[in-house]
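Subject: sequence -> structure tokens, single chain

Hey, anyone have a minute? Need the predicted structure for the following. Not urgent.
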Amino acid sequence: MQIQDQVIAVTGAFGVLGRATAQVLGAAGAKLALLDQAPAAGADDPGRLSIGGVDLSDPAATGAAFAKIVAHYGRLDGLVNIAGGYRWEPVGEGDLSSWQWLQKINLGTAVSACKAALPHLLARGAGRIVNIGAIGALKAGAGNGPYAASKAGVHRLTEALAEELKDRGIQVNAVLPSIIDTPANRRDMPNADHSRWVAPEAIAEVILFLLSPAARAITGALIPVPGRT
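Reply:
Had a minute. Here:
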């Protein structure tokens, strides 16, 4: 599943899953463009460009970031949309602002990044897009309505874009994790069996597969990655 010298943009790259994905893709030979709303830290190297402080819900800011990637590397081969967030809130006791915020940060950032990446991928006539959905968006649980709705939007984005691009050389798929084993989730659920959760590195390996030549026959797929939950 080598992707040697492929230029891959990763949004939400400074978070737990983003860092794990960057490590796995870098080990497979990818040249990385790491985007995040948080400030960039550390020095770049020939195979790693970090662009921090990007509001991925802003089309202009996102377009400028992708133009910087192409100016640096000369092309773009793939996009991994990890940027997003979570909020638990029951419908009755909650507020419409939570629905709007989660739509913006989960679905809006993915749409914005896809639209910014597409001209560059279409110029090459090939490319891969991998979005991060959620198993919890297949059937929402109590308190997960706003989050599930936003991630269900990511699923529909994936399917629609795959259909639009299937004859233009670009494949679009989504990975659907369950509970990811992160420090924040361990703090929030200290009594859970953490061994049953899915490790960020395991999700990153599935992302690598979808970016690789081995997945050339797959587009429009929503692939569950549940661990043992």
